[in-house]
Structures are given as structure tokens and as C-alpha cells.
């Protein structure tokens, strides 16, 4: 039979869509969710859809060239709110389920996010960025040329962020709006950032999170607070000893569950755990101290932007435990963590669960799931019958015509005999007896996890005739705390060896042409790509994206530089510049002879473009190997995942062209 299917292309990105943020109605009969896609103008749109579980129909509730998000049912299921930029900035909108008209509720100057209904359905709490002195009722701040300051005085260390740009003078505040009268009460103020958690069942308290330490520049603790909605004294629940997030009240209002980690020597290289506060007793206890698994979705992909609103810990109806997403060995699933610390897997499988929602009685759930052949879809699980049903196939039509490659899982011996997990994608149209070039792909973080999720870039390379190898070297999530922390202070040491052992491992296979190897990675993965080509000429070509090459300058220019280096490199430029330099690939330029494509966003504040500039200049000056430098104007660190669609496609095309030319 002739195969009429084709390999995936870079431009297919314009067609790929994905659902997120499923929200089951309290009675479990319908779900709303967000569907994100690109329009004919190659701009993102996201709309709210309603899925009826009674007749399996899917209806768009919103439309137009807008970004709609955060759909949330009122407690009785009769109303919905959502956030939309349809009037300019992201504001809160309200929709009565039986009507088609929606109504704008907030008019904050810089937009709002994270709405949470009060238990009586009369009010909604939300978060908003405000400048000192600004109020939530003064209308949208116009971004006119005059509004752009002629100078910016910097007096904090945390003054810019890759997400939000220059964050001087603006802080995230929590407020409550009455949906009938539109009156807004701002609950927090000051030069601290706050985030909304949940309402107490009696509607009197709002659990929020904030870093209100004396010097938030160097104190990274995030505490849980209870704020009385009608005014009065706050209650501090945690003890400024860690970073905690997403507090949720138990049904009886006596406990709070939240996710976080204690601040010991690692801020990032520490797995998130579940904590429970007994509010009357004033105690806080870690429920999962002995569970060596990361709570949260650590999976890295290139179709969805990371950081979709996560449900956090969802209490069982009997208050004896909570449901969370956790990440293990390349998969993320739903787990039930009991109050005694025991854990049961509720939804497993080789896939990436990136969102979930329950009905009120916890009889059923709807989850957002990706796997290596599916960018994302929704599934319904009946917890009583333990049956699962697929609700959407949002890319079904497109993928009918595309031949994807199915990854093969590998486990191989890394440095020190450690067992390392990885995957091999064979080229589309693979034929036994032929040999193929291979590309090693390296993820960033370094504390993230490749896994059972869709990766457009890998499928594209497979469609172009490459074997793609991707693995989780030490430093990755998914294999316990010791594994996550094992790269700290040793960048380019055993993490590098874990990756090289993967290459040795795949080169054993007859179908891999070991004389035609390429390597690519972004961020930490870009650091490692630079490091690898500084070790020798094993690879025919390399692509380094949003990379790090010089830890000494990274310290001062990255939004996280001054604390990231302390933990990850275990050095700083004024006490031990030798160590910073030792781990910097720029030190190795004299060895670099591999044709290198450097790509970088000009507005990347995480790994600023000066890193790419230094590497480019030194390599050009030496003139030993082809080097090309592509700058992406306006792009930040997230460009390859959620940036301008045309830039994303260009990036993929440059990657393929470079490997096709040199490998
Ligand atoms: C959880 S480890 C911390 C990673 C760090 N993220 C934050 C929020 O600070 C980070 O951005 N590290 C970069 C050097 C990096 O490698 N980023 C990766 C993963 O986001 C990337 O692919 O861009």
C-alpha cells in the first residue's frame, strides 16, 4: 500500500492548536476550556469552548481576534467568568450561562489575571499589576509614547523579568470585585507581589501568597497569608522558610494545602512537595517528605507555553487527601496524596497531563493531556467505573495527513553507572539496512524533563531524515532529588558525560551514521551545546539557542543571574571568578571548530543576547569554523514555545537548513 502521508513541516505550526485549562461544571455535566490556535494573520487567538458531556457537543462561547483565558464556573454553575483582552488589556468578563451577552467587570490600568469565585458566587478575587499609587478603578493605562519614561532609575536587583519586561514600580496586588455592583476592594498594597489562592468556605478569608520579606531581592521566601476580606489583621501561615504556592482550603475550612519547598541551599534544584497547615493548631507539615517525586508538571515541550494555570492541590470530598499533578520518569500524571503521606496514582500512562478539573462530588474529572504524537487533547475519566473517554481531537484533521515518528524509550548507563532515560525518534520512512545522521537534543532548565509529550522540532527533524536522540541527564526532574541536584556546581561535568554516553549508546545501532552527528539545545541546553563543541569535533554541526556561554557576565545581566549562578554554578564573580570562568564555554573557544548556528531573542532577559554576541564575536574573530548568528527582534526567552509564530517557524527552518548543510 502506498503511504500518502507526509512528514511534518515547520509551517504546520500555524495549524497546530491545543486545549488547556479544562473546568468541569460543579454538577459534572459540562466542561469549559481554552483552545489556542493561530489565525490567518498568524497571530494567536484563544477562545473559550463549552463541551457538553451529555450530548458530546462542543460550542465556542467566545470568538474574534482575542486572547481569552481563565474560564471559571461560579459555585452554583449558573455563571462563568473569564479573562479577555477584547477591550484592550486583559480584563475580567462575566457570562450568564443562559445568555450570549457578556459583560466586562474590571477596568484595571494594566490588566488582571487569576480570577477565583467567592463561595457565595457574588464576588471574584483576582490579581492585578499596579504602579505605586494607581487604583483599580481608574481605567486602562494608555501605552502612549509620552508614557514611556525618558529614564529609568533602577534601585532594586529584581527590576526586570523575562516574562514581564521592566517591572520597576509595578507590583502584583490582590483585589475582590462584586459582580453585581462592580465595586472593587483592593486587599493588598505596597512594593510586594501577591498571588490569589483560594477563599475559605465561609467566604471570610482569602488565602494568598507573597514575598513580603525585608529584602525580596535576596530573600526568595514566599509565604502563605490569610487575608480577611472585610478588613482586619492578616494571619501568616508559613514561617518565611521556603517558597510556597497555590494554597487551597479544605471543605471544612480547617486546613490549607499548598505546594512548595523549603529554602535550604537550593531554590530551583529542589523538588516541590505538598504541605498542609492545620489552621486551629497553627502547625504546618510536609505530607510528601518521603515521596521522592516532583509535584507539578515538569515536562518540557515546544507547542504550549509552560506555566499554564495549574489546579494545585485539589481536596478530596472527605478532606482526607488531595489530588495533584506530579512528574516521574518522563510522564506526568494525577496522584492522590493522603493525609498520612501515602500516595496513589489515579491517572498514569506514558503521557503528559498538564491540567485537570473535578466535579463537585469528585466522581469524575476532565484532564488536558499530550503525548508524543498528540500536542494536546481533553479526556474525561469516570472515577467510579475507572473508564476514560477522549473528548477532543483538536488536531485530528491536520494529523490525518501527517506521518509522525513514534519515539522508542531507552535506558542507558550514564556517568558513575547511573541509569539514564532517553528516547530515540527514527526518521520518518525509516528503512532497515539504511544509515541515518543523528541529532542530540538537550533540554534547558536544567531542572525540567523531556518526556512523553509532543515535540514539533523533533518530529520535524525526523521528517527531514534524522534520528533524534533526547535524554534526561542528571539535573533533570523525574528521578528523585539527588538526581536533580547532581549537576549543581558541576556544569559540564557528569551532566556532559551523561549526554555523551547517550551518543555512544545510539552509535551502537547499525542505522546510526556516527560520522554524521549534530547537537542542539536551548538555554541550559544551549550552554551544554556550546560546552560540547568546546570539547572536540565529534559533531558535524551545532545549533545553540538562547544559550549561556559566560557565567561571569550572566550573573549581572540575567533577571535571575545573581542567584541562579550561586546555586547552579556555586560561585559568583567577586568571590570565585575562576569557577565562573571554568564552567563558561567561552573559555573553550580555542577548541571550537564545529559549524555553529547561534539563535537568540533580542529581548531575552533570562539569557540576554550579549551571551550570543560574545560567542559569535570570538568565533568569527578566530575564523576556524562557519558560524552564523540569527537575532530575533522583540523575542524573549520563550520565543521557541510561545513567541511570535513567524519567528518560531523561521527558527525551525534555520535549524533544519543548518543541519542539512553541515551534517
Ligand atoms: C526550574 S530550574 C530554573 C530554570 C530557570 N527558570 C526560572 C524560572 O528561573 C531558567 O529559566 N533557566 C534557564 C537557564 C533555562 O535553561 N531555561 C529553560 C527552561 O525553561 C529553557 O528551555 O528556556
Automatic annotation (TrEMBL):
The keyword rRNA processing does not apply. Pfam families: PD40, Peptidase_S9. GO terms for biological process: proteolysis. Residues 453-662 form the Peptidase S9 prolyl oligopeptidase catalytic domain. GO terms for molecular function: serine-type endopeptidase activity. Gene3D superfamilies: alpha/beta hydrolase (3.40.50.1820), TolB, C-terminal domain (2.120.10.30). Keywords: Acetylation, Hydrolase, Protease, Serine protease. This is Acyl-peptide hydrolase. It comes from the Bacteria. InterPro entries: 6-blade_b-propeller_TolB-like, AB_hydrolase_fold, Pept_S9_AS, Peptidase_S9_cat, WD40. Belongs to the peptidase S9C family. This enzyme catalyzes the hydrolysis of the N-terminal peptide bond of an N-acetylated peptide to generate an N-acetylated amino acid and a peptide with a free N-terminus. It preferentially cleaves off Ac-Ala, Ac-Met and Ac-Ser. Also, involved in the degradation of oxidized and glycated proteins.
Amino acid at each position: 500500500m502506498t503511504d500518502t502521508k507526509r512528514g511534518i513541516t515547520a509551517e504546520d505550526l500555524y495549524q497546530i492548536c491545543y486545549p488547556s485549562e479544562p473546568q468541569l461544571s460543579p454538577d459534572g455535566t459540562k466542561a469549559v476550556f481554552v483552545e489556542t490556535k493561530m489565525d490567518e494573520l498568524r497571530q494567536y487567538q484563544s477562545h473559550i469552548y463549552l463541551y457538553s458531556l451529555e450530548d458530546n457537543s462542543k460550542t465556542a462561547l467566545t470568538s474574534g481576534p482575542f486572547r481569552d483565558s481563565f474560564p471559571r464556573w461560579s459555585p452554583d454553575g449558573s455563571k462563568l467568568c473569564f479573562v479577555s483582552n477584547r477591550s484592550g488589556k486583559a480584563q475580567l468578563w462575566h457570562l450568564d450561562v443562559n445568555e450570549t451577552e457578556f459583560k466586562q467587570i474590571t477596568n484595571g490600568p494594566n490588566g488582571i489575571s487569576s480570577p477565583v469565585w467567592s463561595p457565595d458566587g457574588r464576588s471574584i478575587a483576582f490579581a492585578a499589576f499596579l504602579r505605586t499609587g494607581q487604583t483599580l478603578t481608574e481605567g486602562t493605562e494608555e501605552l502612549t509614547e509620552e508614557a514611556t519614561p525618558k529614564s529609568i532609575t533602577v534601585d532594586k536587583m529584581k527590576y526586570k523579568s523575562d516574562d514581564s519586561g521592566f517591572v520597576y514600580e509595578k507590583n502584583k496586588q490582590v483585589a475582590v470585585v462584586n459582580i453585581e455592583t462592580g465595586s472593587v476592594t483592593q486587599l493588598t498594597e505596597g512594593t510586594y507581589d501577591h498571588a490569589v489562592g483560594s477563599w475559605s468556605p465561609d467566604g471570610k478569608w482569602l488565602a494568598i501568597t507573597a514575598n513580603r520579606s525585608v529584602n525580596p531581592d535576596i530573600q526568595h521566601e514566599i509565604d502563605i497569608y490569610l487575608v480577611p476580606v472585610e478588613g482586619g489583621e492578616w494571619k501568616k501561615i508559613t514561617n518565611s522558610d521556603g517558597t510556597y504556592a497555590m494554597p487551597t482550603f479544605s471543605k471544612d475550612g480547617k486546613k490549607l494545602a499548598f505546594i512548595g519547598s523549603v529554602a535550604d541551599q537550593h531554590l530551583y534544584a529542589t523538588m516541590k512537595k505538598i504541605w498542609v497547615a492545620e489552621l486551629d493548631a497553627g502547625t504546618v507539615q510536609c505530607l510528601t517528605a518521603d515521596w521522592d517525586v516532583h509535584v507539578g508538571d515538569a515536562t518540557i515541550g515546544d507547542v504550549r507555553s509552560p506555566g499554564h494555570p495549574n489546579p494545585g492541590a485539589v481536596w478530596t470530598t472527605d478532606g482526607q487527601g488531595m489530588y495533584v499533578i506530579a512528574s516521574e520518569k518522563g510522564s506526568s500524571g494525577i496522584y492522590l496524596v493522603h493525609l498520612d503521606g501515602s500516595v496513589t496514582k489515579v491517572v498514569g500512562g506514558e503521557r503528559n497531563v498538564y491540567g485537570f478539573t473535578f466535579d463537585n462530588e469528585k466522581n469524575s474529572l476532565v484532564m488536558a493531556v499530550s503525548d508524543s504524537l498528540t500536542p494536546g487533547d481533553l479526556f474525561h475519566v469516570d472515577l467510579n467505573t475507572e473508564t476514560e473517554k477522549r473528548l477532543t481531537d483538536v488536531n485530528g484533521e491536520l494529523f490525518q495527513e501527517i506521518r509522525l515518528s513514534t519515539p522508542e524509550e531507552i535506558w542507558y548507563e550514564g556517568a558513575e553507572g547511573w541509569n539514564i532515560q532517553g528516547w530515540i525518534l527514527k526518521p520518518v520512512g525509516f528503512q532497515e539496512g539504511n544509515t541515518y545522521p543523528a541529532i542530540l537534543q538537550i533540554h534547558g532548565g536544567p531542572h525540567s524533563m523531556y518526556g512523553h509529550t509532543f515535540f514539533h522540532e523533533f518530529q520535524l527533524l525526523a521528517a527531514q531524515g534524522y534520528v533524534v536522540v533526547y535524554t534526561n541527564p542528571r539535573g533533570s526532574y523525574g528521578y528523585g532529588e539527588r538526581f536533580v541536584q547532581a549537576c549543581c556546581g558541576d556544569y559540564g561535568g557528569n551532566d556532559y558525560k551523561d549526554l555523551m554516553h547517550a551518543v555512544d549508546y545510539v552509535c551502537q545501532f547499525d542505522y546510526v551514521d556516527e560520522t554524521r552527528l549534530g547537537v542542539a539545545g536551548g538555554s541550559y541546553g544551549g550552554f551544554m551545546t556550546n560546552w560540547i563543541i568546546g570539547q572536540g569535533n565529534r559533531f558535524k554541526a551545532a545549533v545553540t539557542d538562547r544559550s549561556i556561554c559566560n557565567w561571569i557576565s550572566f550573573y549581572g545581566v540575567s533577571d535571575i543571574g545573581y542567584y541562579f549562578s550561586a546555586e547552579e554554578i556555586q560561585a559568583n564573580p567577586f568571590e570565585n571568578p575562576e569557577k565562573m570562568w571554568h564552567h563558561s564555554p567561552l573559555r573553550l573557544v580555542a577548541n571550537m571548530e564545529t559549524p555553529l548556528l547561534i539563535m537568540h531573542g533580542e529581548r531575552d532577559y533570562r539569557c540576554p543576547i550579549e551571551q550570543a554576541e560574545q560567542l559569535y564575536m570570538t568565533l568569527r574573530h578566530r575564523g576556524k569554523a562557519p558560524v552564523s548568528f540569527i537575532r530575533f527582534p522583540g523575542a524573549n526567552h520563550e520565543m521557541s514555545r510561545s513567541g511570535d509564530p513567524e519567528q518560531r517557524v523561521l527558527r525551525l527552518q534555520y535549524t533544519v537548513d543548518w543541519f542539512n548543510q553541515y551534517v
